[in-house]
Design brief:
The protein has about 180 residues and is α+β, with helices and mostly antiparallel strands. It is about 15% helix and about 30% strand. Strand 3 and strand 4 form a beta hairpin. The chain is globular and about 55 Å long. It binds zinc ion. Zinc ion (ZN) binds next to loops.
Length: about 180
């Protein structure tokens, strides 16, 4: 899966990209409050209808844009991120959460809060949202890098490091 990446808004922590099927997305990072050092990121569909096959590739690309050398996270010196995953129903929320979190690897750690409670000042009742809150933190403990497995860029399956092709989808795993 190839994407056309537009980094002309990177100075504002936004990157736009387009998939082969013409679906356009925008990824952006923002501090939750100025100076808080706690960041969140958003992911918007700008145009087109994404197909199911694109999901893994797109999430893999987001991960790459965030984590690559001199990417958004390194440039902003980010060590803590929160984001909410929403969806049409609980099943979709959990599915998206699973797809997203499988890409989170050491030194990053995450914690999921289901249906986070949002209190609104001046209101008596709390609001329960059908979302998952993912809290991602960079571990300060230096761990040995586990190089025994790698994830297929196309379908997300975890494979043995010496596999040449993904047994699930046939993707060539020797490409960068
Ligand atoms: Zn695969």
């Amino acid at each position: 899966m190839n994407y056309t990446i537009d980094k002309s808004l990177e100075f504002a922590n936004a990157i736009t990209f387009k998939s082969e099927s013409g679906v356009e997305y925008r990824l952006y990072l923002a501090e939750t409050a100025p100076g808080s050092r706690l960041w969140t990121f958003g992911f918007q569909l700008i145009s087109g209808n994404p197909n199911q096959k694109e999901v893994f590739g797109t999430i893999g690309l987001i991960q790459k844009l965030l984590l690559e050398k001199n990417g958004l996270i390194e440039k902003n010196n980010i060590s803590e991120i929160v984001l909410t995953i929403d969806g049409k129903n609980r099943d979709e929320v959990d599915k998206k959460t699973k797809i997203f979190t499988r890409w989170i690897k050491s030194p990053w750690e995450f914690e999921i809060t289901r249906n986070p409670v949002i209190s609104i000042q001046g209101k008596m009742e709390n609001i329960y949202l059908d979302t998952n809150l993912i809290h991602i933190k960079k571990s300060t403990i230096v761990e040995q890098i586990n190089s025994e497995t790698k994830f297929c860029f196309n379908c997300g399956t975890e494979n043995k490091k010496d596999y040449k092709f993904c047994p699930n989808c046939g993707q060539n795993l020797q490409q960068a």
